[in-house]
Amino acid sequence: MAEVSLKGEQRVFMTGNEVVAWAAVAAKVDIIYGYPITPQNEIMHYWTRLAPKYGKKFLQTEDEISAGFATLGGVIAGRKAFTASAGPGNVLMQESASMAEMMRLPIVYVIQQRGGPSTATVIYAQQEVTLTTFGGNGEGHRVVYSTATHQEIFDYTIKAFIVAWTYRFPTFILGDGYQAKMREPLTMYDPEARGIKLVKPEPILGDTTPGKQFKHIRNTYNTEEELYDVVMSNQRDWEAMAPEIIEWDEQGCEDADVILLTHGIVSRAAKGAYDQLRREGKKVGFFRPITLRPFPDEQLKKAIKNAGMLLIAESAYGQLLKLVQNALYGSTIELVPMLRPGVGITTEEIIAEYKKL
Amino acid sequence: MQEVTKNDVLQPPMPSCWNEETKPHKFCPGCGHGIILKALGEAIDELGIKDKLVYGCDIGCSLLAWDFFAVDTVQTHHGRTTPVITGIKRANPEVIGIAYMGDGGGYAIGSQHLFNAAVRNEKITVILCNNCNYGMTGGQMAPTTLPGMKTETTPYGRDTEQTGQPTRGPEMVAAVAPEGAYVARGTIANVRQLKGFLKKALENQVAGNGFSFVEALASCPTNWRTNAKQTWEFVEKEMPQYFKVGELRTPQAKEG
Questions:
Q1: Residues A172 and A260 in one domain
Q2: Taking CA atoms, what residue in B is nearest to A71?
C-alpha cells in the first residue's frame, strides 16, 4: 500500500476501501472491529497494516453481530470506533445499530453496498438504502451519508465521527462496491490543519477514576409512558439537529423542465448527463441528496418548484424513489423512475432515458 | 459488608458494592440470581475493584440486575453481552469487564460469542446462571433443560431424541479456551465455594491471564412450579448429577 503523510496535503491514487482506512487515521479513530465480507474487506486489510504504525487496534470478531456489538463496547469505553460491512452483513449489523439508536451511542458504520436480496452479488448495488436508513426496530434515529467520489469518502468518513460524537446518533457512510474497489485520485489532508475541529471522545462507562459516580445505561423500559418520553426526546433532538447537518447538491434546477434525481455514485452519471444535455441546450436540472437521512425534503421541494418532471435513476428497485415520494407528498410533479436493481447506470443510459420523455 | 439499619429495623448485611436503593431486588422469591449476585458482590468487595468494573447485563431475568450494583452497568441485547464487554475491554484494558447472562443468552442465542471469546482468550469474566429454563419469557426449554424435564415448550418432558442433550457449558469452554483460562461450575447450594470461584474468575482477569467463566447452578421455583423443599432438592441433588460442580480449568502455568 502507498505510504501517505497526513501532515499537510497529499495527492494520492487509491481504492475507496483504502481511503476509508486513511480517513479513519486522519479522524483519530482508535479501534476497528470487523468481520470479512466483500466488497469492504480491504478496509480491514489496510487498517491492520496501518494500525501498529499509528498505535491503533483491531479485532476480527466471529460475525457481524459481534462486530457491531463489540464496536458499541469500544464506543461505550470512550474510544472512536467503527465497523464496516455489506449486504447480509449489513442485515446483521442492524441489531447493534438499533441499540445505538436507543442508547444514543456514537458508533460509525461504513457500508459498501452489494447486490441483494440474500447473498446475490459481491459487486455493486444501491439496494441497501432502505436497510441502512431505516433498518432498526422502532423509530430509531441515524445519520446516513451517501458518498459519490473517493474525495467524499475521505471527507465524509472524517465528518461521520464528528457528527456521531457531537449529536450522539449512529452514523453511516453508505458507499458501494464500485467506490470500494476502483482507484481514483483524491487529496488527503490533516483535518485539523484545515481548521476542521475533531471531537474528542469521552468514556460513557468505564472511567476508572477511584470514587467516581457510577452510571447505569439502559435500552429497556418498563412502561409505555417511559418509552414514549425517551423516543420523543430523541425525536426532538433529531429534529433540532437535522437542519444543521442536511447536505445536498443541485445544479440548474431553477429553469429546468426535467430534473435528474440520483444519489451516490449514480449521481456522477447523472452529472455527466446534466452537463451534456445542458450543452445541447436542454433545460435539465441536477439534484442529489447527500444525507439520505435526514433527507433534504424542503430543499428538494424548493428545487422542483418550476419543473414538470423528476427522472429518478437508481441501482435498486425504488428505494430512493420511496424516500422521494415521502419527501414530495402532495406535490403533483410527475415522477419517472429508472430502476436498475443491482446494475450500474451510465451517463449514456440516463441521456437515452431522458430522450424517451 | 456491613449491617445496615433503617427505621430502627435491622437490615440484612449487604455487600458494599450493591446499590442499596434498588433493594430488595426484583427477582422472584426463591430465585437463584440473588444468591449468585450476593456471592459476586462479596467477591468484588474483597478484591476492592468496584471502581474499575463495567458490568454488562444480558436480556432475560439477568437483566433485572441492571441496577443491582453501584458500579457502571450497561444493558445489552439477548446474547450480546459477551461482545459488548469484549469491545469495552479491548478498547480500554484497564476496565474489569463482567458479562452476566442466563443459559439461553450464553448457550443458545449468544453461544457463538461465548465460544469465540473463549477461543480468543478474551480477558473478561463471564458469569452464567443455569436454571434449566428461560425464566423471563415464561419457562420454555433452555439448552440446559434436563432430559425429561417439563417446560412450556416440552410439556410432555424434554425428549432428547428430538432436542438433543443439555448443554454442558463449562466443559465446552474448558475444551476450547487456551492456557490462562479459568473455568468453573458452582452452585447456589454451596455459596462459599461459588464465591471462591467467582473471586478466582475476577482475579484471573485482573492478572491478565485469560478468559474466565463461571456457571452457577440456580433455582427457578416460579417456572419449575416447585415448593421450597422440591426446589432445593432439584438444585442440590438433581442438577449436579448432570452438571458436575467444580473447577474445570485453572491457570496453573502462571501459578506454578
A1: no
A2: B87
